[in-house]
Design a protein that fits this description.
There is one protein chain. By secondary structure, the protein is mainly alpha-helical. Helix content is 78%, strand content 2%. It has one domain (4-238): Phosphate transport system protein phou homolog 2, domain 2 (Methane Monooxygenase Hydroxylase, Chain G, domain 1). A two-stranded antiparallel ribbon has the order 1-2. The termini are close together.
Length: 246
């Protein structure tokens, strides 16, 4: 078994022995900072999106949708600045891995924001409804926001251990989704939920599940960046970090 702590230490020692490339390193540091800012921006959007769904607040939902323009702009800007770094002639594998990680994580953050917008759009489209979301949905939504917060934090700190903890919460989100789907089906059968409300509830639940899935993708990248190890999701759960050729 390859231990993640040992691999992180090895990667750090290797990076320290390689000469600095000032232009590359300065631009990389700025990109990393801007990526974390983008993560915080996406977390804010998703938090406001969930809150307006709880409250069925159409005006706040419209503001959430409008705020996605800034995230899209930052997404394009980060990618535009990342690609030229690969042409600066840096041969250090770890530094190249950092650039590729930025590009991949940037893409995941944009997808998370899109899912948050989906939640807000359902608030706008459905208007006032007499039904209220089940308690389990509130627990799931708050849990997903917690997963997103920790994924952004693991990215900011390059914390592979925190990233690993996020992965281990993935199955809990899946159980919440199944419980809510079953509950909605039962409530429709009993006449307590309209078909329209149940349909929109399921669409929102799936959007939240996508947010959690994209968070696990970010955390996989954090683990790989820090240790050179990968994790795999299997039927029995997440594997231990292992070498790519394992």
């Amino acid at each position: 078994m390859v231990h993640i702590d040992a691999e992180i230490g090895h990667s750090a020692r290797v990076a320290a022995t390689i000469g600095s490339v000032p232009e590359f390193d300065d631009k990389l540091a700025l990109l990393e900072r801007d990526l974390v800012t983008q993560g915080e921006r996406v977390l804010e959007l998703c938090t406001r999106s969930v809150e307006c769904y709880f409250d069925l607040d159409v005006e706040r939902a419209k503001a959430v949708v409008a705020s996605d323009d800034e995230i899209d702009r930052a997404d394009v800007e980060i990618e535009r600045r990342s690609v030229p770094l690969l042409g600066l002639g840096v041969k250090d594998e770890h530094r190249i891995r950092e650039v590729l990680t930025i590009v991949k994580v940037n893409n995941e953050l944009e997808r998370i924001a899109d899912a948050g917008v989906v939640v807000a759009e359902h608030v706008i489209e459905q208007g006032p409804m007499k039904e209220r979301v089940p308690a389990t949905f509130r627990v799931m939504a708050n849990s997903v926001l917690g997963v997103l917060r920790d994924a952004v934090r693991s990215l900011a700190k390059k914390d592979a251990r925190l990233a690993r903890q996020v992965l281990l919460f993935d199955d809990t989100i899946e159980r919440f989704k199944k419980e809510i789907m079953l509950h909605a089906q039962e409530q429709v059968a009993l006449g307590h939920f309209s078909v329209q409300f149940a349909f929109r509830l399921m669409a929102v639940v799936k959007a939240l599940e996508r947010i959690a899935d994209n968070c696990t993708n970010i955390c996989e990248q954090v683990i790989y960046l820090r240790s050179g190890l990968i994790v795999r999701h299997r039927p029995e759960g997440w594997s231990e970090p292992e070498a790519p050729n394992a």
